[in-house]
Amino acid sequence: MPDALERLTPQQRHLLTQRFGRIVVVSDMSWGLVSTTVLEVDTDDGLLVVKAGGTPDRHIGREISAHERWTAPWVRCGRAARMVFADRATKLVVTEYLPGRLVLGTAASSRLDVYEQAGALLAQFHRQEHVVDEGYERSANTKTLRWLAAPHRIGPDVAGRLRSMVEGWPTPTATLVPTHGDWQSRNWLADDIGVVKVIDFGRAAMRPAGEDFERLAVREFLRVPGAEQAFLRGYGEDPREEDAWFRRRVRAAVAVAVWAFHVGDDCYEAEGHRMIAEALGRFPVRSMRSSATSSRSWTG
User: Fold this and answer.
1) Which of 53, 132, 182, 219 is the most buried (most CB within 10 A)?
2) Burial class of residue 100 (count of CB atoms within 10 Å of its CB; 0-12, 13-18, 19+)
3) Residues 113, 60 within the same domain
4) Would you say 167 and 247 are in contact if contact means Cβ atoms under 8 Å apart?
5) Domains of the chain: total
6) Is the torsion defined by CA of 65, 69, 73, 76 positive or negative?
7) Structural domain range at position 112
8) Same domain, 179 and 217
9) Which of 52, 85, 83, 54 is nearest to 66 (CA)?
10) pTM for the predicted model, two decimal places
11) CATH number at residue 69
């Protein structure tokens, strides 16, 4: 697949050749919606995965930081790939190839033991460190208001309700832990004996623990009976505080709807609009009058 390598910048290709010599593309694993190219390659060092970011990419730096700070417990037990080369300036990261098949879209996506393993893995990741942040909620609210100010296809009345809601939210102190940021079955692998492994750290960052439950809550937990209970068994507790969880669901819904519109992903955008409708359905109009003073009006 020579064309796949051509999507990398000359600097990225030079660094790869300089470090690994022979490079043969085995498969192109790019999603196609963003500027990141993901390739499985064969080298004299064995099978590797190359991730190369384009000019607007902001994920490669996070991926590198995650490997430097947080993936070691998983790497030691074969649950995540080891980073073998990285260059922040050129937005390039190379890891070992991790054997397994994506859980998404396979029979493994319906197996409850997969969710229990995923919960246990996430708990291990979250336990590595924590920090108390007084500004996180305020920053998250500001980001949501920026999304609402950007071009989107959210109806004017709905956007107005969302804006009023967010502006009235409290900004309590938050406890942040290392989060994966896209914790769902499309970023899990299962090997031939059913062992779950983790890929893609491009959204990893310090956030409240409950934020790693958000993608599952609108997908796998709805589709697979018993998945949420199995996941919580593995995790050991439920870190989602009711009001903070509701705020997170609304923020995520807005971000999905607006971001998907920007990249032209109609299906994902529709999911964002469904999430918005569900959130507003749990927040009656009459409650908005008291939103600034009573966070208990919000349920999730």
Assistant:
1) 53
2) middle
3) no
4) no
5) 2
6) positive
7) 107-297
8) yes
9) 83
10) 0.89
11) 3.30.200.20
